[in-house]
């Protein structure tokens, strides 16, 4: 379900190619999402939540690739991302299993010697996510950035800028996760630390299989997805606009091509400085900029904004229909009203049941008189 939208837009590329406005909207929303989710991932403390927001950010990459017309690059990143992100999620599960269900990275640290296979797996996933050479993410992520630059449009330049900043943040929060989880002094209690152990092979084997894909999927699929064989591979599945951004990506300036790698290395260096060399510095930065830290920690207040714009009005509208329309009108004049009249009529009718024989005899005489009178009047008429 997470990636279904990417597939749908790619398959509907002939339709999207008919509207540049629609493509621009997809590109701008995707590029903004890539940056938005990356900034949130930089301050999260739950190991799974960091990876979850990373997924949101990488989906932003896929969508702005679609928006600039690099449909093959978007699907390529979808495929490579599936390997290393699934591996990171399962790797996080292995860490949580080793830490006796602890998910807060602030209560981890110094455990790499106890779970060496998981440690190596998480490094492979992070290297691929950051887009460093050889690993799968390098081939697909860099192609997206180069295609955005090669689109030679204002929207393409915006997407490239947002993607480049997101690449810096991606490398930063990936190594922040690694350093907080595996390095430094242990921050968990002694009981938890004593039980830190490697996961069983039933958990490790899938991680190793995914690690192979995280390393080799990019270089194996490059030619077919975005290289010289792409026309034969895609055939009529994807539309190609008047200017093919993937073709332009192969001819961008070498500086642009190398920029994502340099940016990723810078992000790793910053994480190393903050969480290995000066581990007390992040807390001081958070104290120095409490508003920004709180803003990012609360996910740009999107949950609160969503609650104010959609949830509360929806509840108010639902309450109005419930109290005023459903209960106040439909039930009052419908089933409740009919049942009330029935109860009133039943109570009034029950008053006739007095239990005295002479009352019933009198009623019978009255009834007989009415029937006889009606008969006589009818006969005479």
Question: Could you outline the blueprint of secondary structure elements for this entry?
Answer:
Blueprint: H1 4-11, H2 13-16, H3 20-41, H4 47-67, H5 71-98, H6 116-130, H7 136-150, H8 154-182, H9 190-194, H10 201-225, H11 230-234, H12 245-249, H13 254-277, H14 281-288, H15 290-297, H16 302-333, H17 335-350, H18 357-380
Helix pairs in contact: 3-4, 3-8, 4-5, 4-7, 4-8, 5-6, 5-7, 5-10, 6-8, 6-10, 7-8, 7-10, 7-13, 8-13, 14-15, 16-17
Annotation keywords:
381 residues, mainly alpha, 77% helix
**Percent helix range:** over 70%
Number of strands: 0
Residue fraction in strands? under 5%
Number of helices: 18
Shape: elongated
Rg from Cα? 34 Å
The residue-averaged pLDDT reads: 89
Contiguous low-pLDDT stretches (5 residues minimum) are: none
Major beta sheet summary: none
Order of helices and strands: HHHHHHHHHHHHHHHHHH
What is the SS-derived class? mainly alpha
Count of the domains: 1
Distance between the termini: 82 Å
Q: What do you see in this structure?
A:
This protein is mainly α. It has one domain. It is built from 18 helices and no strands. Helix 4 packs parallel to helix 7, helix 6 packs antiparallel against helix 8 and helix 16 packs parallel to helix 17. 37% of the residues are buried. The mean pLDDT is 89.
Concise summary:
By secondary structure, the chain is an all-alpha fold. It has 18 helices and no strands.
